[in-house]
């Protein structure tokens, strides 16, 4: 064995504690890395078998729009509001498909979008709710999917009462465990109205229909109520089975040739479905995978840098002697490199095994999500090895530089000074480096690409500023906290002054290492809270909104409700801006908005035209400015209305208008520039056709209640009263497609509480942020193992002084508390640095995100979620108190035994 090999073996024997701590940290980071990359590979590998099973037993299908595997968006299904355009497959395309020699059979049907007013806890579900595509069972004598039914029976077309079979996946990922039992009556909101229907069966949980395929199969009474018979003999979905050994390519070319435009009809094949599935899987993985990989690599880099630098400092005199005896700097650098390869190799192998084992257990516990099982492929081990090698290579930059500078002159041991001067102006200059990233939130340019370039330049400058501020901060913490920490730990304050700055490099590295994990946690929560705040409904909005969707109640019924209840009818409809005004807005703002419509809200008592700050900020509109909206009537005539802004208010309107169904009705897009409030008489005179039915009520005051549960109970009673009033409407809606189903024209009355929407928004935001923020917390726990090697190095550096203190009366307990004080002071430094990092990056990333969001004009509000920040600090303190006591006891015992 070479001399270098013998020396490396001696290092392994002498520095077991330091290397074991580093190996544990690297293994944990490698396990996190293996989990992230392996989960990505396994998820992607499920796409091919899933594409082969989706849509069985059909080989291809023709749909209007773009059918996908993810959601029924763009699949041509009619929305919940009567009057929305229904996209049908052109008759020429349908005839060409049926006449194709490659086709064995064609099943043509019409799929409409409907929603179930299902309330598992007595409250309306927020978000999209439970629903799917509904098709008449007369087109499907039996279940079209091979796995059939999991419970109940197939609905009968001639059933006297409305009934339907549905996929249990509509109620949640747990399938039948989340779904109500067979025989439950559930209100079904169809494009024409509300129908009380019975669930007679559930499809098998293994069935995952393609987006646009029916997930509900209705009897004739329910299908007629949904106006499925009023299609003029056309369909919007053609399920095709090809003859044996026939390819769908020729049929796809026929559809493209016959179809009048690209969106009129599309032939979807399994190859196209596979591409869509892989694209969706990639987009889902991009949510967490980059953060997981980045934090795992940072944790690996920090652990290796700390371990190698501490090793060089511990063995400084020993290596200096070897250099004096003839060892070259290249050989010392080779020794350090071998140590880094050992840590990355052994830690990577152990961590990879642990991560893959945990992933395998997770995959086995979720067979529905991973039907093909664990599939790592060659990408996972190669990617993990490459990322670990990259991290180890980057980690070698600092230790190799120090090893190259270590020479025989280091034999002259110089005692470290207790105090190191850190001028205040140096810390101030370091903090100035954080200014550019904070300025990202300013509206200096409407171009998101320029803002992104600014952010990429400001981010490394902010990191450099934090690194430069670390040493002045350590000196400040020693000066401020020496007395209180000394009083708590029963130590003299003089002992704690200089305890960090004495070995500033070593302690600064540890503080920055902890900051990498805790700072990311803080940044995620500050970014999320600042982005969520503009979406929390404003207190200026009404306490509740009542919606009568899809087709509203008559004016007579609304007048009776106004007399008996504290409600006011209001008007809400989306209209396009005139082309000239839209172009002018783009010229003033620097770019065209993504939406070209406003939500006109007519309320009683409004005398002018009031717009929101978001609308005014995005469109560069002020008081006194004028803009025009337009609409087209049934005869095709274009009408215009000129509006002059009289007031601007701050109002967070997004989620209230979405949950209450004020937007995306009558074929209007979901996005809008914002609400514009006008008088109710103005709105009615502008669009009398839409104003003929009252779809929304403005609740002035909530029923008196002692607590939230009582409020919900009172709200349920009020909602029941409103529903009965809608059912007793003397002038029910009777439009095209009204069928003989029970209560077919009765709207669905829903009470939308403003505070309930706020709570749901905060809960959903916390859930999403919790998934992201959990990752840096794991990395923080990994990085906290660095305390062991840090304390060992500090004890070795101060061994003589600590023995002297013990000789003149310092007890073992006081020595242990002295070392614990070092760790706690480092926690304080890391906490302050993490808060600065979280504020700068979280706030700057907020400005960058707002620049790319489809909602223009959102305010840049800095929100500090103190409860979440306190959780991160508690995790840091708990990790310190768990990791440090045993190493401190061992180090003190070993020190005094020598």
From TrEMBL:
Describe the location of the ABC3 transporter permease C-terminal domain by residue ranges: 292-407, 778-892
Residue intervals passing through the bilayer: 285-312, 340-363, 375-398, 424-445, 451-469, 510-528, 775-797, 818-845, 873-896
Q: Which domain of life is it from?
A: Bacteria
Record InterPro entries: ABC3_permease_C (IPR003838), Macrolide_Exporter_MacB (IPR050250)
Going by the UniProt record, its keywords in alphabetical order are: Cell membrane, Membrane, Transmembrane, Transmembrane helix
Pfam family membership, one:
FtsX
Where in the cell?
Cell membrane
Q: Does the keyword Transmembrane helix apply?
A: yes
> How does the record say this protein sits in the membrane?
Multi-pass membrane protein
Q: Name one GO molecular function term.
A: transmembrane transporter activity
- Keyword Membrane annotated: yes
Can you supply one Gene Ontology CC term for this chain's record? plasma membrane
Q: What is this protein called?
A: FtsX-like permease family protein
The organism that produces this protein has a lineage beginning with: Bacteria, Pseudomonadati, Lentisphaerota, Lentisphaeria, Lentisphaerales
